[in-house]
Amino acid sequence: MTAANGAEPKPDAALKNKILDASVFLDEKIKKDAALASDCLSDGKKWIAKVAADAAKSLKEDPQFFKEGRWTYERRYDVRSVVGDRYVSIVRSDYVDAHAPNTDVDTVLWDRSQNKRISIRPFFTETADNGPAMDAMLKAVVAALKVEKKKRDADDAAGVEFLQNLKPKLLGIGAVSLAPSTEAGKSSGLTFHYPPYAVGAYAEGEYVAFVPWEALKAFLTPEGARIFGGARPKSDEDATQP
């Protein structure tokens, strides 16, 4: 994400000292929603405070950690989709370089009508751990990851290793977002976002697994039936893969 003149945009929150350079960036679309922007900024500032405390502790324990200079932390909040002019999916991406670069990814689902974060539970008749809906969801995720892994010639393409990291429960299946759709105002399904190491070797990079809404049609609530429809745009498929 760069400014119009090619320069890096100014962070929305930052802390820079002799051991740390931490910054948080909000998508311009987020900034247009005061409640959402406030939520993301608060979350980002808490993250900066935590990494600053961690860095200070590391300095105290062993100053050699910083002999090569500051540790760099960057967090970005980017809008992935807006569904029904109500549900906003955000991808939160972290980059860390404590002289060994690493990345992480998580998601936020924001309900504009309530001005708060929610889960995908309102869209499904049941989401119990190991229940039928989560079992169906996990099977679809695994199938999507196998296809993507095969494209990358990953060693564990059969799914033996990475499958063990995923569980049929909302807090064990991966960070989820509502995928955009070819049909205006709808979502074409769910996308699950995985950082390096989560479902494969670090060299494989991040993965995004797409589950079309039709695969979960039997479990949709009336609200779920209202917001899902259409197909995943080809442009989105291209944008979410390396």
Key phrases:
3-stranded antiparallel beta sheet, 6-stranded mixed beta sheet, single chain, alpha+beta, globular, 242 residues
Give the SSE layout:
Layout: E1 13-16, E2 20-26, H1 28-31, H2 34-61, E3 71-83, E4 87-97, E5 101-111, E6 116-117, H3 132-151, E7 175-179, E8 189-194, E9 207-212, H4 222-227, H5 234-239
Parallel strand pairs: 2-3
Antiparallel strand pairs: 1-2, 3-4, 4-5, 5-6, 7-8, 8-9
Structure description:
This protein is α+β, with helices and mostly antiparallel strands. The chain is built from five helices and nine strands; from the N terminus they run ββααββββαβββαα. The strands form two sheets. It has a six-stranded mixed β-sheet. Strands 7-8-9 form a three-stranded antiparallel β-sheet. Strand 1 (13-16) and strand 2 form a beta hairpin. It is globular.
Provide a quick synopsis of the model.
With 242 residues, the protein is an alpha+beta fold.
Shape: globular
- What does the radius of gyration come to? 19 Å
Q: What order do the SSEs take from the amino end to the carboxyl end, as H and E?
A: EEHHEEEEHEEEHH
Number of helices: 5
**Cα distance spanning the termini:** 16 Å
How much of the sequence lies in strands comes to 25-35%
Task: Count the beta strands.
Answer: 9
Whole-number average pLDDT?
Answer: 91
Enumerate the spans where pLDDT stays under 50 for 5 or more consecutive residues. Answer: none
Describe the sheet with the most strands.
6 strands, mixed
The percent of residues in helical segments reads 25-40%
Structural class: alpha+beta
Main sheet: which strands, in order across? Answer: 1-2-3-4-5-6
